[in-house]
Design a protein that fits this description.
7-stranded mixed beta sheet, 4-stranded antiparallel beta sheet, mainly beta, 0% helix
């Protein structure tokens, strides 16, 4: 059984940094595609970042500010978020799928329960 459990969300100020963590069981983060998506109130899911093997990608809205990484030994992935803006306020979801990275949320097989990030101005 695959489980993804996010943690690290919270309320921060504009310009602050935050690191989200995702603990993964039932899948290897070193061999599978792992991703982060977010959903703001009233909006659709938005691709944030993904990583697989030696490749990683970030969405245009977060490029240069957010970095995704993984710890193969702990089977965890992380999302380091710097210079946070009010428009980054959303529920952030950790995702996994068996093959290549894709930008379409519906093509990701496994999802965590989400963690709320609120950026206050």
């Amino acid at each position: 059984q695959v489980q993804l459990v996010e943690s690290g969300g919270g309320l921060v100020q504009v310009g602050d940094s935050l690191r989200l963590s995702c603990t993964v069981s039932g899948r290897s983060v070193s061999r599978n595609a792992m991703g982060w998506f977010r959903q703001a109130p009233g909006k659709e899911y938005e691709f944030v970042a993904a990583i697989r093997l030696n490749e990683d990608y970030s969405g245009d809205a977060v490029k240069g500010r957010f970095t995704m990484s993984r710890d193969d030994a702990k089977n965890m992935v992380y999302l380091q978020m710097n210079n946070l803006k009010p428009e980054d306020t959303a529920v952030y979801y950790c995702t996994a799928r068996d093959t290549r990275m894709v930008y379409t949320p519906s093509m990701w097989t496994y999802w965590g329960q989400g963690t709320q990030v609120t950026v206050s101005s």
